[in-house]
Amino acid sequence: MEKGVLAGKSILIVEDEALLALGLEQDLQDAGYQTVGPYRTLADARRAASEETIDAGILDINLNGELSYPVAEQLLRRGIPFLFVSGYGGESIPEDFRHFPRLAKPYDPADLMRRLKELA
């Protein structure tokens, strides 16, 4: 897999679906990224977003019924870029968050890497 612009940087993974999280983690590591997580719960993701060294984030919006927007807000406060991944359409995202990058599930790993490059 092609090395990304953020290669060597730490990417926060927030994803509640175990198989997707493991695949995402492997794809990122194969592309040269360091991974932080994956975190499957809002509480764990919030802790990581405030305490860990992170260069960018990939946030699933729905974490077993809890929404990841508080994590996005923490990353914004820290000046850390992120993108949302979701199986839901853009109309379900609150207006305050609609302008942030979003990748629809299921996604191609090449599309994810392209979107990460755009964050840099």
Give the overall average pLDDT.
91
What is the spatial order of strands in the main beta sheet?
2-1-3-6-7
Low-confidence stretches: none
Structural class: alpha/beta
The main pleated sheet reads as: 5 strands, parallel
Order of helix and strand elements from N to C terminus:
EHEHEEEHEEH
Q: What is the subunit arrangement here?
A: single chain
GO biological process, one term: phosphorelay signal transduction system
Pfam family, one: Response_reg
Protein name: Response regulator
InterPro entries: CheY-like_superfamily, Sig_transdc_resp-reg_receiver
Description:
The protein has helices at 18-30, 42-51, 69-77, 109-119, and strands at residues 10-14, 34-39, 56-60, 62-63, 66-67, 82-86, 102-104. It contains four helices and seven strands. It is 36% helix and 23% strand. The longest helix has 13 residues, at 18-30. It is globular. The strands form two sheets. The protein has a five-stranded parallel sheet with strand order 2-1-3-6-7, sandwiched between helices. A two-stranded antiparallel ribbon has the order 4-5. The mean pLDDT is 91. Helix 2 (42-51) packs parallel to helix 3 (69-77). It has 120 residues and is of the alpha/beta class. Strand 1, helix 1 (18-30) and strand 2 form a beta-alpha-beta unit. It has a single domain (10-119), classed as Rossmann fold (3-Layer(aba) Sandwich), CATH 3.40.50.
List keywords for this structure.
two-stranded antiparallel ribbon; 120 residues; 5-stranded parallel β-sheet; 4 helices; Rossmann fold; alpha/beta; 36% helix
